[in-house]
Amino acid sequence: MGGLFSALGSFWSSLVHIFDPLCGPVGIFTWLGQSTILACGDTGWGDEIAVGLQITVSVAIVTLPIGLVIGFLVALGQQSEEKSLRLAAGVYTTIFRGLPELLTLFIIYYGMQILIQNLLDFAGYSGPPVEINAFLAGVIALSVVFSAYCSEVLLSAFRAIPKGQYEAGHALGLHRGRTLRLIVLPQLVRIALPGLTNLWMVLLKDTSYVSIISLADILRQTSVAVRVTKEPFFFYGIACCLYLALAILSSFLLVYVDRWAKRSEVRR
Q1: DSSP state string for 147-200
Q2: Which of 248, 266, 245, 253 shows the shortest CA–CA distance to 53?
Q3: Long-range pairs for 118-124 at CB < 8 Å and ≥24 separation?
Q4: CB-based contacts of 85: which residues, under 8 Å, 6+ apart?
Q5: What is the tens place of the pLDDT at every residue in 44-64?
């Protein structure tokens, strides 16, 4: 089993290297950064910045589906007929929209370690101290913040769908779950997509907060390079270019997603 995981790890590393846009076989730094401080390898900072780009993208991609699922459930809770569910969903969104993202990250990263450690001590655990993985803490913190804003976008989309759509599903003999899946969700995606697109752009920028807990994202890696080389304008300029490149690429991809979501609309 250990050999299998090792082989899968090697395959994944090779795959990431091949498609690495900075230090891969056809990467920007590989071709244009040779003999400069952006060279890939031991002579430059290209490898470190490439790893930072991978971490930033990974945090954003892992956070997105988790935040969407939690946000969808919270939105359902906000329009539930059960008063306690509405109250719990309202408290959730109020807390995580009201707290600064950085404070939420600190609470989860440090608070979860203290809480888990105290619970283990109470249970008689005497092993080494518990440490929360920085990547996991970053994903959890960004997910709860993203989901709080996402729930409001989805709630507005739910309210924009006429009640007649639900009644039509009931008239066709569809139970509530099938009505939601076959009739409501396709319209929900189309209505909520502009707001979710904006939240994705915000999420890409918010990934920079994970550098505070020593996760090697773009900002963390460029900051280390600045401290060593004393070239702040150059390396922070590189960071700006990478974030803008991610935003531009996301914009192009989201245009196709928007077209896909509206594919069934009648042309006027």
Answers
A1: HHHHHHHHHHHHHHS-HHHHHHHHHTT--HHHHIIIIIHHHHHHHHHHHHHHHH
A2: 245
A3: none
A4: 77
A5: 898 999 999 999 999 999 999
Token pair for 181: 């899946």
Length reported for the chain = 268
Would you say 190 and 147 are in contact if contact means Cβ atoms under 8 Å apart? no
Q: Collect all residues with Cβ–Cβ distance below 8 Å to 32 and sequence separation of at least 6.
A: 38
Write out pLDDT tens, residues 160-204: 888 777 777 777 777 777 777 777 888 888 889 999 999 999 999
Q: What is the pTM of this model?
A: 0.88
Strands (DSSP E) contained in 102-247 are none
Catalogue all structural domains in the chain, each as residue range(s) with its CATH number.
Answer: 33-259 (1.10.3720.10)
Exposure b/e, 191-230, CB count within 10 A at least 16 = b: bbbebbbebbeebbebbbbbbebebbbbbbbbbbbbeeee
Q: What are phi and psi of 214, to 5 degrees?
A: 70, 25
C-alpha Rg value of the chain to the nearest Å: 23
Question: How far apart (Å, rounded) are the C-alpha atoms in residues 63 and 151?
Answer: 15
Give the integer Cα–Cα distance in Å for 127 and 90: 39
Supply 10's token pair. Answer: 């090697």
Cα–Cα distance, 124 to 121 (Å, whole number):
5
